[in-house]
Request: fold
Amino acid sequence: MTTRNSSTLHDLPRSRGHIQVAKSFRRCRWLLVGVLFFAGCKKDPVDPKPPEPTPSEFKVTDFTAPEQCASCHPNHYQEWQSSMHAYAFVDPVFFAMHDRGQQLTGGELGQFCTQCHSPIASRSGETPPFFDRNRLSPISTRGVSCDVCHSITKVNKLFNAQFAMSPGNTKFGSLDNPAPNAFHQSQFNALFDRSEICGTCHEVENTLNTRVEETYSEWVQAAVAGMSLQCQDCHMPTYAGEAAVGGPQRDKVHRHYFVGVDVPLVDFPGADLQRQMSDSLLKNAAEISVNAPASVQTGDTLRFTVKVMNTRTGHHLPSGTAAERQMWIALEARAADGSLLYQTGQLDANGDLMDGHSVLQPNADRDLVVFRQKLFDETGKEVLFFFQAKTVENNLIPLFSLKTASYKIAVPAATVGPISLDVQLRFRSLPPYFLRELNLGELVAKVPIVNMEEAKVQIGVTR
Ligand code: HEC
Ligand code: HEC
Ligand code: HEC
Ligand code: HEC
Ligand code: HEC
Reply:
């Protein structure tokens, strides 16, 4: 694997003093898991080239459309239709990136993107490299729909959607005593209660054999560090009720919102609720603390640190498509009269952070700290898209770990105290420069910036 470690921030030994389970996760179970248990979860050896789905494996008519499930599973349908799984083959960013990738590689990407974003389309031969979006079967446009997951029989490899499917009359799931119904057969499969069914897609190796999304591997690492929750425990919380209209009352039925950090950027059912849930997930993911002196003398330098801890995810923070994500420290120091002594993490007039990607004020923010992934081609040049990456450099925060940023501020002789420090940990799923590059600049205003954490500190000033 080709991963370099960033040297801009230093990793401290993981801290277990800060673990707090988020309110919504309280019902989850935290146990210590022996390292031995995970000895069998080693990464797959790198194949020369990730295999592609066989386009003729199925016909689209082998699968059932999600609308057909709605009458008996109204909750499942209503929740799923607002999820990113339903958005996966609607997302304008997906199509812009996919088309760019096919153009840049002369179609070499093949079914690489579609094998995860719409397995029904790719396995039925509907998505050759330059496919016409407007000529897809309706079921293909539904992305990761009910029948994608509930036709999975076996996970072959834990990356690039290498799973076996058996579409048709039998729906597979984790109920070991399903009530019979007139529409389909049901079959228990223990896989559905385990992270592996998610890991087969939530681990991406590009066509240059570089792992660019590693949520599943990070989860294995988090489990070794003592976290014993499956993906479902956090992303599919349970409630008591019916799994189907008229079915038996059950203690545990699973929510299908699959809340993460992305929100739909086009009109989409349930978008407001999805946004609220994403907001609160992010606000319960991390903690920050500021370590500053009680006072500073005028003419001196004020030195302090900000620690950011990943306390409650099941993987790194951010995770997944971490090259697009931006989680950063925004900080302002003001004197008692309100005058600004220092700032970092502010945006330029285009809405970009002032790092190398800012067109208006490139690299103007020297102390900027962004937790993200950077991508490089084989010559070491930074590239924007993960299908171009030969190497990656990660500045992500593993679970139970913390990263420290250090700051120095010159305190002018005339400063009137106390100095107020306002520190925020901010997040957004897609930066403006990235959307502009894809000619999707009109979407910039739709991407929310979430204040995940905030800390305020006062520092006395002596003469
Ligand atoms: C991304 C994969 C995925 C998609 C898409 C998906 N499901 Fe599920 N579903 C699961 C998993 C995993 C479970 C079991 C969770 C567990 O036991 O931990 C489940 C459980 C269920 C159950 C059993 C009852 C329960 O809630 O535990 C039903 C019924 C169900 N899903 C119906 C649907 C329907 C209908 C859709 C589409 C509207 C759908 N699912 C879409 C993964 C998925
Ligand atoms: C005619 C009503 C009806 C329709 C339509 C229907 N289901 Fe079901 N389904 C049920 C009932 C009833 C159960 C059993 C619920 C229970 O035992 O709690 C069930 C159970 C399931 C389970 C759990 C199986 C297991 O063993 O874990 C899954 C998964 C599922 N359905 C998926 C689907 C999908 C996907 C669709 C649409 C393609 C669909 N269902 C359409 C009535 C229906
Ligand atoms: C067939 C492939 C596939 C499977 C299986 C799958 N996912 Fe996904 N998942 C995706 C894709 C593709 C997206 C991104 C869609 C988009 O935003 O365009 C996604 C998005 C998500 C998101 C939202 C991420 C965000 O940033 O908002 C969550 C959370 C998630 N999946 C959880 C799960 C869990 C939990 C499971 C297992 C029960 C699972 N997924 C199984 C393909 C899959
Ligand atoms: C202990 C709870 C927990 C577990 C277990 C967990 N997650 Fe998450 N997940 C979170 C939280 C909190 C966030 C929001 C912060 C972040 O982005 O990391 C998140 C975010 C995500 C995202 C969006 C990441 C991004 O930054 O773009 C995806 C995708 C995801 N999870 C998938 C998974 C999958 C797949 C698994 C299992 C392999 C899993 N999660 C296990 C809590 C959990
Ligand atoms: C192995 C499965 C897999 C493959 C292959 C894959 N994706 Fe994804 N994609 C995912 C998952 C899982 C997520 C959600 C991760 C997250 O939210 O952090 C995702 C999220 C996304 C998103 C939404 C997040 C964002 O950046 O806004 C876009 C856009 C996207 N993928 C485009 C693509 C394109 C284009 C390709 C092909 C070059 C591709 N994907 C190939 C699984 C895959």
In short: Confidence is low (pLDDT under 50) at residues 1-47. The two ends are 55 Å apart (CA to CA). The pocket of heme C (ligand 5) is lined by residues 91, 93-94, 97-98, 101, 109, 112-113, 115-117, 160-161, 201-202, 204, 260, 262, 319-321, 324, 387, 429-430 (CB under 6 Å). The CA atoms of residues 335 and 419 lie 5 Å apart.
